[in-house]
């Protein structure tokens, strides 16, 4: 499985130059997606009113937070990071020596990339002659471990709860596109193997669906009580 995951990652990761680096760093960030979050809340408001939108917002944040916390379990970070103390986290692709055919530890490769990011001159003075197999923009160097992908889990949580609530075909395709491009950006930046994203997607889909179920139950109960009062 790891061999296939490594090969698929190397096939998808490439050097897109300064433009590619800028685009993928932007896609992987938060600011670009604020209009999407606002669009979702506006559509929920039009469909279910202010109370429905506020309820959705709480459950959306809850689903995203839950998926992020579960993802952190396997990387030993976040509120639940100490839940599996004996679990061995998986290093990010950028810190995986096997991909570079280098006989060093992941920690050593991590230190090399951090030096390249923080002190390019000192890194150049090392005289390291190596053709890097993994393209890693210096801005992307951070965090040691990749499994489970929190980016994949949180965007899937958002996609599932919003698509289930809105039930618009065009919106579903918009969320599919957004999810795919965000997940791919994590491969481009050298932060995640494809399977990191698969596991994250499963976690996020489950959290998002749970949020949707709770939202639907409360909305139905509220609507039913309102009808009974009118009668």
Detailed description of the structure:
With 231 residues, the chain is mainly α. It has a single domain, classed as Vanadium-containing Chloroperoxidase, domain 1 (Up-down Bundle), CATH 1.20.144. Helix content is 69%, strand content 0%. The chain contains 9 helices and no strands. Helix 7 packs antiparallel against helix 8 and helix 7 runs parallel beside helix 9. The longest helix is centred in the first third of the chain and has 40 residues. The chain is elongated, with a radius of gyration of 21 Å. The mean pLDDT is 94.
Average pLDDT confidence is: 94
Rg, rounded, reads 21 Å
Into which percent range does the helicity of residues fall? Answer: 55-70%
Provide the structure class.
mainly alpha
CATH top-level class: Mainly Alpha
Overall shape: it is elongated
Distance between the termini: 61 Å
Largest sheet entry: none
List low-confidence stretches. none
**Total DSSP helices:** 9
SSE diagram, text form:
Blueprint: H1 2-12, H2 17-28, H3 34-73, H4 97-100, H5 106-118, H6 120-125, H7 150-166, H8 169-188, H9 194-230
Helix pairs in contact: 2-8, 3-7, 3-9, 7-8, 7-9
Q: What key attributes describe this structure?
A:
Vanadium-containing Chloroperoxidase, domain 1; 69% helix; 231 residues; elongated; mainly alpha
Short description:
With 231 residues, the protein is mostly helical.
